[in-house]
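#onboarding

Welcome to the new folks! Below is a worked example of what a typical request in this channel looks like: someone posts a single protein sequence, and someone else replies with the predicted structure as tokens. Don't worry about understanding the tokens yet, we'll cover that in week two.

Example request:
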Amino acid sequence: MTLQQWCFSYRGRLGRRDFWIWQIVWLLTMTALFTLAGNNLLDTQMAAFCVVCLLWPASAVLVKRLHDRNKRGYWALLLVVAWMLLAGNWGALGSGWHTGLGRFLPTFILIGMLFELGLLSGSAGENRYGRATQPVSYFRRRGAEKSSHQ
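Example response:
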């Protein structure tokens, strides 16, 4: 798999190693963006633009990892639900609702997805989303890849 397919394509499957590499890259990028914006070294709107630009590659990696687990990409919407529950104002409903809907349920979703995608191995062999996972070629040149598939 090429670097472009890794970041921008929703087709295919992605193994745990490349999933964790993306998570580290994403975490370091977010940390740098928020640190620069917090210290007024980067405009807040530019940092927000960069975060929005990272949504596509983040979702592509997530969907391909779900495909490796033989699950539809729609399962990624659980993370959107968790984010919405975390951002919700549940205080008006009382402390039980705040704890349950605002903290427990999103935490349960996030830990479940992290366990599913980061720790469990993908389905063996070919599944409905393609061949078994192939590692991402981070430093391979385009010409070298074409010659290896012929």
